[in-house]
Amino acid sequence: MAKQLVEVIDRRGHVVHTYAVELPDADCHDAEYEEVALILAEKGGIVAESEYIHLRARCIR
Predict the structure, then answer these.
(1) Which of the residues 1, 23, 30, 49 could staple to 59 if both were Cys, CB 3.0 to 4.6 A apart?
(2) Sequence ranges of the domains in the chain
(3) How many CA atoms lie within 13 A of 30 on its CB side?
(4) Cα atoms in the 13 Å half-sphere on the side-chain side of 38
(5) Sheet of 15-23, strands arranged across
(6) CA distance 19 to 43
(7) The whole model's pTM is what?
(8) Residue 6 to residue 20: CA distance in whole angstroms
(9) Over the stretch 10-25, which tens digit does the pLDDT of each residue have?
(10) Is 59 helix (H, G, I), strand (E, B) or coil?
């Protein structure tokens, strides 16, 4: 299992949450971790549903 910290960012550039994403393959790309974090943010309801489209994510190095 490979673990990566991923920040979820709103349209104003503010970090709304940081997730510790764990994936089974150590060779995963950043985009895969970021996708999981965005899904978690949507399911977790950390922002209004109308804001989902504006969320972005980035891995923390």
Answers:
(1) 30
(2) 2-6+13-49
(3) 9
(4) 17
(5) 15-23, 2-9, 56-59
(6) 13
(7) 0.91
(8) 6
(9) 999 999 999 999 999 8
(10) strand
